[in-house]
Amino acid sequence: MTAPIPTGGYADANRRQVLYWRLLSRLFDRDEQPGLESASVAVVDDLGLPAALLDPSVSVDTIVQRFPALAAELRGLLTSAEAQPHADGTHDAQSHAGGPHVAGPGGDEPDDAANNGEAHAAAPDGTGPEGPAGDPAGDGSAYRPGAAEVRRAALVSKVLLNVFATGSGPVSATQLARWQSDAGWFEQALGCEPGELRRQGGGLGGTLAGLEGDLVRRMHLREVLADPALASQLTPSMSLIEQLLRDKANLSGVALANAKALIRRFVDEVAEVLRTQVQQTSVGALDRSVPPKRVFRNLDLDRTIWQNLTNWSPDDERLYVDRLYYRHTARRTTPSRLIVVVDQSGSMVDAMVNCTILASIFAGLPKVDVHLVAYDTRALDLTPWVHDPFEVLLRTQLGGGTDGTAALTLARPKIAEPKNTVLVWISDFYEVNHQAVFDGLQAVHRSGVKVIPVGSVSSSGQQSVNPWFRQRLKDQGTPVISGHIRKLVVELKNFLT
User: Fold this and answer.
1) Where is the composition biased (Low complexity) (predicted)?
2) Which terminus of the chain is more exposed, N or C, with fewer CB under 10 A?
3) Domains of the chain: which residue ranges?
């Protein structure tokens, strides 16, 4: 357990200084500085902030998803600070943030020396070569930052480090999407809409656009797809499909055609595997009100012989048949409705691919009416394309937040007969409105619908499910299915057949 750090006086100035020194160290030196790292961990822990703020591999979106209250603090974080109070109670417009300066949306740089990137290290007791930290005169008259400024420094460090420390080497589509999301938060911190600065170009916007272009070039996927010979050598895999789905909006011509061919190959391969696990006919009670079909395969030979025994001729030693009897094969079935709701956020790519393919297979079964809904912060009804998972995947947009209330609004009207309806909800359940989503699923369950929550249906069986949802869904009798996709296949077959 990290011991609490003293606060007040010059202690807060020193804590803020530690965070900014760590930021500069990580931006300009790839090697970690153990002293700065351990001190920063202690500061963040003392502030009650998540330790993930210090991990550049964790996106800002993930932080906000886990801790929604931080979203409001991040928006406008780097806009003009409120005037800081002097010791005599007066205010001025000059910020004493003391951290790395970030140019405004227009890219203008300040003329004063207070934001020229220079910093003066303070000694542990708060003194330095020019007196106490932040007090060049040494008379204690300078503004002293409080705990709120230290908290702000921690959030600023997270945003700046995630955006400007892009590293080197090959980049995956996932890393690119994460950077784009972090850049969007950086733009919101400056008071702009996500993507606004990058669209403007010039100044800071030009810098961001340059960083994004560098990441895209390091991915190299477009170059491979543009060459039919190289593209033909690619073997479809889940990771490759994820990159293609993320980057499909930026592809055109030959590259887009090759990308679609790879997605189609992968869909067909997975569908073939899943199809062997799914029973192709529905099972139900025989419907004797429907006359049997008079074909040879339905001939009931035993009954035909029994009913014609009176026609036995001892002299001829033959059984003369004057009537044939056939088996009833029609089954009395009630049409079942399968509603599949898929979280299309970036963390659910594997599940989304598998479940859209599985939905298309069940859509081919008799007496099964399949509906497909994909959602992030908005819901999209993909039912018209449910028979073609390839088209479904091309219409999805990976990434974004997760708000299941939009999907519930779209799915509820599809429930006509609750007792004959199954709702499959695929998500990691890290929802923006978690209580509202749980209440909605609980109401659907109580109406008689069979609810099957799915945390992961990947080929590898890996999973990530919000513990809050996992426990509550288990308590209401609808535990989250996790592991291999075969588990979901078994559950659906038991209900639909």
Assistant:
1) 113-142
2) N
3) 221-276, 285-319, 333-496
Residues 6+ apart with CB under 8 A from 301: none
Tell me the per-residue pLDDT of 186-202, one tens digit each, with 9 for 90 and over: 999 999 888 778 766 56
Do the beta carbons of residue 119 and residue 20 sit within 8 Å? yes
Q: Tell me: the pLDDT tens digits for 397-447?
A: 766 678 889 999 999 999 988 988 889 888 888 888 889 999 999 999 999
Spatial separation of the C-alpha atoms in residues 491 and 472, rounded to whole Å: 20
pLDDT for 238 equals 67
How many angstroms separate the CA atoms of 152 and 164, rounded?
Answer: 18
Q: Span 333-496: which CATH code?
A: 3.40.50.410
**What's the length of the chain?**
497
Tokens of 41: 């961990």
DSSP states of 115-160: GSS---PPPTTSEEBTEETT-TTSSS-S----HHHHHHHHHHHHHH
Question: Given the DSSP bridges, would you call strands 368-375 and 318-319 parallel, antiparallel or unpaired?
Answer: unpaired
Q: What confidence score (pLDDT) does residue 119 get?
A: 37
Q: Is the dihedral of CA 64, 427, 352, 395 positive or negative?
A: negative
Instruction: Give me the phi and psi of 142, to 5 degrees please.
Output: -75, 155
- How far, in Å, CA of 71 to CA of 63, rounded? 9
- Given a contact cutoff of 8 angstroms between Cβ atoms, the answer to whether 126 and 12 are in contact is no
Helices (H) and strands (E) in the chain, counts: 19, 11
Residues 6+ apart with CB under 8 A from 335: 367, 368, 369, 420
Instruction: Extract the runs of DSSP E, i.e. beta strands, from 129-265.
Output: 131-132
The pLDDT-based confidence of 393 (bands split at 50, 70, 90) is confident
Residues 128-151 have pLDDT tens digits of 444 444 454 445 555 566 788 888
**Average confidence (pLDDT) over 469-490:** 80
Whole-angstrom distance, CA of residue 440 vs CA of residue 369? 22
With pLDDT > 70 as the criterion, what percentage of the chain qualifies?
A: 70
Find out whether 392 and 372 touch, Cβ atoms under 8 Å: yes
Q: For residues 301 and 326, give the distance between their C-alpha atoms in angstroms, rounded to a whole number.
A: 8
> Pairing state of beta strands 336-343 and 131-132?
unpaired
**Three-state secondary structure along 167-229?**
CCCCCCHHHHHHHHHHHHHHHHHCCCCCCHHHHHCCHHHHHHHHHHHHHHHHHCHHHHHHCHH
User: Is the Cβ–Cβ distance between 428 and 373 less than 8 Å?
Assistant: no
Calpha distance 231→227 (Å, rounded): 6
Residue 479 CA, chain-centre distance (Å), reads 21
